[in-house]
Amino acid sequence: MQDIPDSRIATGFADTLSTQGFKFLEHSSDPAFAVDTSMRLAYVNRSYIAFGCANGGLGEQDSFSGIGTYIGDVMSDPLRQFYLMAYGTLIKDDKTWNHEYDCSSPTHYRRYLQSTFPLKGKGLVVINRLLKEQSHTVASEPPVKDYYLNENQLIPQCSHCHKVRRHGADVKWDWVTEWVASPPQEVTHSLCEPCADYYYGELKATLTSA
Ligand SMILES: [Zn+2]
Fold this sequence. Notes:
With 210 residues, the protein is an alpha+beta fold. The protein contains 6 helices and 9 strands; from the N terminus they run αββααβββαβββαβα. The chain is globular. The N and C termini lie far apart (38 Å). Zinc ion (ZN) binds next to loops.
C-alpha cells in the first residue's frame, strides 16, 4: 500500500500502526486518530481531516499541520479535562473504552461511537463511527438572551449536546438552533447534567473494571 504522507503521521509511527494492526484505518471511512504517550497527535486518517467534531479545526487535507500538536491545545474545557484524564488513564492502564456522544449540527442530530485502543506503551488509537444521523426532532427555542444569561452575564452551552442552560429556578437545557450555527459572544462551555452523568459514569465504569 501507499505510504502515509508525513503530514498525517509522526516519524516512526507507521511501524506502530502496522505492527498493532491499525493500518486499515487508512482505508476506513470512520474518522480516526492516534496520540503518543505524551498526548501529541501522532496520526490522523483521511476521514478524520474532513470530520467536523472535536478536531479543533485542524485544517484541510492538503495543508494539514496538526501532527505533533498537544491535543489539550485544540480542545476547550470541560471536554479538555475529561478527554485528557480519560486518554491518559487508558494509556497507563492499557484499557479499551467505548462511549457514545452527540455531535449535532444546526440541522442534523448526529451520534457517534468512539472506541479507543491502547497501543501497548506507544499511545492510543481513537476511532469515531457515525451511528445515527437524522433531522432534529426537538423543536428549537427562540434565541432570546434574557432567558439564558446567568448571573455572570454568560450563556452556558453544553460542549457535547450543544444545548444552552435556561436561567432560573428550574434547571432546563434548551436546543436553540441559531446558537449552534453561530454562538453568541456570551457563550461559555459547560456540561449539562445528563451529559455529565453519562460521560463520567461510563468512564468511571471502564476505569474501575478489572
Ligand atoms: Zn449536554
